[in-house]
Amino acid sequence: MMFYNVENFYPPNQETVGFNNWDDYKYHLKIRKITNVFRFVEEDFGQLPSVIGLAEIGARSVLEDLIKEDSPINDYEIIYEPSNDSRNLSVALLFDKTKLILESYQTFKFQLNEEKEFDTRDILHTEFLYQGKKLHILVVHLPSKRNQDAKKAQRDYIIDKLKETIQELFDKNESVIIMGDFNENPDNEALQGLLYKNNGEKILNNPFETFFKNNQFSTYHGKKGVCFDQIIYSGKSLIEQFKLSNIQAEIYNSPRLRNKDNKNNKYPHRTYSGSRYMGGYSDHFPVVLRLEK
Questions:
Q1: Is the pTM of this model over 0.85?
Q2: Which region holds residue 235: left if phi is over 0, alpha if psi is between -120 and 50, else beta?
Q3: DSSP state, 70?
């Protein structure tokens, strides 16, 4: 499984983009680059991800172009609903329908009060059957830290609501995977609280805590490394229900996705740096979770 924040992935010439000179050429180059990331993952891991969560998708047409005939994931199914987001960006999920059966999906919108929703991305909650058992996969992209972290209270509120959903699923003994850009590092207090039931019992594992402690990062804010991209999961139920021998996570920071110059070669090769077009993949690295039999 894989999650990837693909950085402002709009259709060409969309008015709400907010950066300069986004056109057909740059758009189709980015389609090729992101589909190549799927090929790189296949080469390095021996297979394509069965599930691909995405953030910063500007329209369904982007996803349709990612699964066209010449794409390595040309037979994948799309799950996408547009969010009420100020930048017109949403999360999405692509999956291999030969491996998983989609039972249902829904999006969670968040109310600021009775009249007004948060101006933020929805959470996508999918329910699959895998080997005859239920598997819930949630894709999130929490409010950003822009403007001196003005949306921190929104982020904390959404994490609390997410925790309620996870507790309900855990009480039914159903397996859960949450993937996304949390706009918080794994040591954040609210994210730490997500891992535990109210009685203190630990119900979720977050392997990205260890990566962050070891100075391994999924993206950078200026020169500061952060690990906002994470995959969190119910390890005990996954291992028991799907007869797994191992669950292994990774930040996929392949040299192919990084800047080529020696001075900046630890950073992702991004599409834009401010208003300057860089021609790269994304300002985030993908994160991967391997479920091994």
A1: yes
A2: alpha
A3: T
Q: Which of 218, 199, 198, 219 is nearest to 207 (CA)?
A: 218
C-alpha to C-alpha distance for 209 and 1, rounded to whole angstroms: 18
> In whole angstroms, how far apart are CA 143 and each of 8, 176, 244, 265?
15, 22, 34, 28
Q: Is residue 154 helix, strand or coil?
A: helix
List pLDDT tens digits, range 20-68. 789 999 999 999 999 999 999 999 999 999 999 999 999 999 999 999 9
Alpha carbons within 13 A on the beta-carbon side of 250: 13
CB 172 within 8 A of CB 127: no
Residue type, 288: V
Q: Where are the beta strands (DSSP E) in 23-143?
A: 51-57, 76-80, 90-96, 101-108, 123-130, 133-141
